[in-house]
Design the sequence.
């Protein structure tokens, strides 16, 4: 065997050495330590299948499987380092196996290519991570629900960041729960779509050996069985792109919530105070308490979009089947997963520990004519067509602005100048708390 086989899975057809820069440039190791485990899991299923199909004896299979398990144990214990001299995780595992158990280890790669192997590893990992992220989403939803239930305060709802109509702090927070539940559904669906096993697709054209792809698909938990087309099975990165898209939407939701936490904790709003643990101070301005946790969630969202774009761009011009460009799926996914995971945790803690300021919320409700729509509703209930009612209330608002008064502060006589259908019962009708008790608005309580 040529010398290169000490650090490479190839070398037989080369006369010269690889440049050190090329080796570093080509290595995926700094981003794929998390693939050691799924890689060994895939190999264990593969050798079980090879034995079943008569391509390995039972004894050979046992030696290889024990070797793989010992590599995993040593790797977990920190006794084996996955360094950049190895081109990728597959090289790292196979070469250590051969070093450990000798020539029988060289049979591991029978009827397999790194092209099908890397997609098996990634699918196992990505699928599992959709579950982990879903669990973090659940935790954030629980925090949102708890904080929502504890804070039923009336507050202004906004459109165009202008005060619009009364809502409650509770209901506003629960809007984010709905977004997160959809994010979870999207992840579950992505896991379902990707659930076909690429193992056995080989480099791109299957293998001359009569292997059993259904066996490995089942052993590795792919409910959709083996991939239908060998070329597609090794060329597909949709499954990474789909999860990155889902992550991007999820981060967009977290970023909007982060933006609201930042606004609400400003002196201009004063609706909440974030816990000291998730804020920082200034090196020069002693009074500052800055919402860095939320700002970092908002700021890092763009990184996840970038990860998605990087992989979309890497894929768009590639001829079938495998091209090395595709190795970057690991960089994109690892970076996005890190941002998503830490952002969900940070958001959960910020939500669970924030202090709401109901007084400031209520004060904001009483300025900005948040009951104007309900004055129009009152007129409609007395037979005025809505468009006319809208115009009448617009006039009332203009009058109030000039007089520096709120609508409810006007006298009945002043109000009747705008419409004779207005009676004393308008005042309880347009009371801010009473508004929330009317019609389907009760759902917001
Ligand atoms: N490390 C590679 C990847 O993840 C594995 C496939 C390598 N195949 C090859 N023909 N060089 O994309």
Sequence:
């Amino acid at each position: 065997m040529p010398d290169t086989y000490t650090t490479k899975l190839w070398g037989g057809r080369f006369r010269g050495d690889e440049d050190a820069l090329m080796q570093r440039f080509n290595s995926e190791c700094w981003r794929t330590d998390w693939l050691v485990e799924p890689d060994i899991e895939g190999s264990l299923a593969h050798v079980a299948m090879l034995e079943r199909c008569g391509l390995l004896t039972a004894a050979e299979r046992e030696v290889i499987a024990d070797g793989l398990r010992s590599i995993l144990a040593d790797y977990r214990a920190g006794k084996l380092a996955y360094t950049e001299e190895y081109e990728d995780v597959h090289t790292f595992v196979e070469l250590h196996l051969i070093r450990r158990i000798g020539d029988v280890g060289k049979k591991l790669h029978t009827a397999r290519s790194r092209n099908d192997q890397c997609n098996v590893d990634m699918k196992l990992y990505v699928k599992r991570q959709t579950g982990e992220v879903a669990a973090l989403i659940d935790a954030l939803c629980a925090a949102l629900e708890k904080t929502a239930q504890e804070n039923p305060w009336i507050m202004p709802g906004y459109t165009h960041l202008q005060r619009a109509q009364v809502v409650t702090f509770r209901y506003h927070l629960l809007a984010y729960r709905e977004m997160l539940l959809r994010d979870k559904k999207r992840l579950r669906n992505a896991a379902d779509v990707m659930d076909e096993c690429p193992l056995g697709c080989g480099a791109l054209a299957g293998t001359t050996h009569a292997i059993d792809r259904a066996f490995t698909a089942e052993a590795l938990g792919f409910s959709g069985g083996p991939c239908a087309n060998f070329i597609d099975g090794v060329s597909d990165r949709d499954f990474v792109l789909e999860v990155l898209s889902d992550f991007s939407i999820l981060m967009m939701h977290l970023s909007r919530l982060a933006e609201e936490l930042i606004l609400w904790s400003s002196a201009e709003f004063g609706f909440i105070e974030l816990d000291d643990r998730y804020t920082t101070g200034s090196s020069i301005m002693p009074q500052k308490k800055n919402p860095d946790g939320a700002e970092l969630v908002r700021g890092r969202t763009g990184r996840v979009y970038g990860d998605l774009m990087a992989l979309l761009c890497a894929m768009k011009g590639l001829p079938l089947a495998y091209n090395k460009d595709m190795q970057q799926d690991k960089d994109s996914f690892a970076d996005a997963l890190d941002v998503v995971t830490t952002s969900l945790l940070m958001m959960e803690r910020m939500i669970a520990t924030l202090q709401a300021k109901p007084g400031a919320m209520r004060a904001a409700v009483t300025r900005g004519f948040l009951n104007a729509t309900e004055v129009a509703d009152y007129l409609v209930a007395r037979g005025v067509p809505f468009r006319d009612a809208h115009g009448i209330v617009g006039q009332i608002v203009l009058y109030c602005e000039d007089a520096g008064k709120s609508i409810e502060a006007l006298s009945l006589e002043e109000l009747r100048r705008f419409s004779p259908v207005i009676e004393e019962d308008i005042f309880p009708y347009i009371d801010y708390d009473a508004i929330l008790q009317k019609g389907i608005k009760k759902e917001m309580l």
Summary: Residues 114-150 form the longest helix (37 residues).
